[in-house]
Design a protein that fits this description.
The protein has 421 residues and is of the alpha/beta class. Helices cover 42% and strands 16% of the residues. It has helices at 5-16, 25-33, 49-58, 70-83, 99-111, 121-124, 127-134, 163-170, 185-195, 223-233, 246-258, 272-283, 317-324, 342-352, 357-375, 380-387, 404-407; strands spanning 38-41, 62-66, 89-93, 114-119, 138-143, 176-180, 201-204, 212-218, 238-242, 263-266, 289-292, 305-310, 334-340. The strands form 2 sheets. The chain has a 7-stranded parallel sheet, with helices on both faces. The longest helix has 19 residues, at 357-375. It is globular, with a radius of gyration of 23 Å. It binds adenosine-5'-diphosphate and magnesium ion.
């Protein structure tokens, strides 16, 4: 099937109300509509969903969308229904459906109104569903959060490994599109290999965030005073401070409050009501600062977060990138300040010591990259982007002077020598 440029833009407007494609979307969609395997790597917020939603709505048959989180799927499905209820529907197929609901979904698919069928990989394995889906027209299969297929990603899900075989049973030459925000070359290789799409055309957006300033400071006994000073210099601005433990989150939030800084704590140990109250206080700017574990941030879209501080260094550069990425979403200033001590690396190593050997090896390799980043004297932006398989011109690239090493070249940080309690 061929679609003209005009078709594509008209469809974008019709189904989503948008006037322009974002980034690489148009090329991705064209490639998929031509029936080719496609691989999309874009940072979070880059607009990956539309890369499969629009072609699904434009084509005959049903697109199968594999996604790991049912809550996430529900969100997406509801969003589509809100946009264009008359142009086809999206359904979720999962273990929570009653027999009657499953029957309804099947009828909608058979009558051709279901344009997208969201499934968790563990549901797709069910023989009953495979048999049924073999008998209907599948436009393509989209695998969202495709890094889940790789042990080198941050969210390995073994069920993703079955996808290639199942899709093979659904029909011949069903085009596949894999999408992820994890861009490390290792994960990338795992994805195309395990999905069986080594021939896929790759669409990779840049991961550079030119407005973010990266800084690493040695973590000393004065860290609390350092943080207080930094926050006071940025009074009135929104910021997130990440800590490794819940205990530290609560303690630091209290220290900040005592020092006249408006801050709330956030971690998964609070009940849902408390969590959403603290989150709202931050979003509504009743407080400047949220001190949090990594439980905070997923799906939070506050455009004007002006700083992200890491009280403790994260366990991978991937996490560091995701967490710092919450600063400066609006394109404005975003200061990313990480405190680093080798002692914290040893702590993280210790956490892993109970895990299976293979997992430990991967975990340690990821940690070594973090050490490299923290101790480097080169452009931190170049280091991060290199980690994501991207070349960065540290002289002329966008944001080239936006890190401590480039702006004020200094001697290498030897955090091993710093004293930390
Ligand atoms: P990702 O999955 O890559 O993290 P999403 O698919 O959730 O990103 O999209 C992020 C945001 O971008 C959404 O709010 C979406 O509506 C918006 N968006 C996507 N494509 C466009 C577009 N062409 N024009 C305007 N907004 C878009
Ligand atoms: Mg997404």
């Amino acid at each position: 099937m061929s679609h003209s440029k005009i078709d594509l833009h008209a469809s974008l407007k019709k189904f989503f109300g948008f006037n322009k494609f974002k980034g690489l979307q148009e090329g991705v969609i064209n490639n998929l509509l031509q029936g080719n395997n496609t691989f999309v790597i874009m940072p979070t917020g880059g607009g990956k969903s539309l890369c499969y939603q629009l072609p699904a709505l434009m084509q005959e048959g049903t697109a199968i969308v594999v996604s790991p989180l049912i809550a996430l799927m529900k969100n997406q499905v509801d969003a589509i229904r809100g946009i264009s209820p008359d142009y086809g529907v999206a359904h979720v197929l999962n273990s929570s459906l009653t027999k009657t609901q499953v029957k309804e979904v099947k009828e909608d698919i058979l009558s051709g109104v279901t344009k997208m069928l969201y499934v968790a990989p563990e549901s797709l394995i069910k023989e009953e569903y495979v048999e049924f889906l073999r008998s209907v027209k599948i436009s393509f299969v989209a695998v969202d959060e495709a890094h889940c297929i790789s042990e080198w990603g941050h969210d390995f899900r073994p069920e993703y490994r079955n996808l290639k075989a199942i899709v093979g049973r659904l029909g011949d030459n069903i085009p596949m599109i894999g999408l992820t925000a994890t861009a490390t070359p290792k994960v990338q290789e795992d994805i195309v290999k395990n999905l069986g799409i080594t021939d896929a055309k790759l669409f990779k957006a840049s991961f550079n965030r030119p407005n973010l300033f990266y800084e690493v400071r040695p973590k000393t006994q004065n860290i609390e005073a350092d943080i207080i000073r930094f926050v006071k210099q940025n009074v009135g601005k929104s910021g997130i401070i990440y800590c490794l433990s819940r205990k530290k989150v609560e303690a630091l939030a209290q220290v900040l409050q005592v020092n006249g800084i408006s801050a709330v704590p956030y971690h998964a140990g609070f009940d849902a009501k408390t969590r959403s109250r603290y989150q709202d206080m931050f979003l509504m700017e009743e407080v400047d600062v949220v001190v949090a574990t990594i439980a905070f941030g997923m799906g939070i879209d506050k455009p004007d977060v002006r700083f992200v501080i890491h009280n403790d260094i994260p366990k991978s550069l991937e996490s560091y990138y995701q967490e710092t990425g919450r600063a400066g979403r609006d394109g404005g200033e975003g200061h990313c300040l990480a405190f680093y001590s080798y002692k914290d690396i040893e702590k993280l190593e210790k956490f892993m010591s109970g895990k299976p050997v293979a997992e430990q090896e991967i975990g340690n390799a990821l940690l070594q990259e973090v050490v490299g980043f923290a101790e480097t004297s080169m452009s931190r932006r170049k280091f991060i982007l290199h980690y994501f398989g991207e070349d960065f011109d540290e002289v002329n690239g966008e944001g080239a002077d936006m890190d401590d090493n480039t702006r004020t070249p200094k001697e290498k940080v030897e955090a091993k020598e710093n004293v930390v309690k």
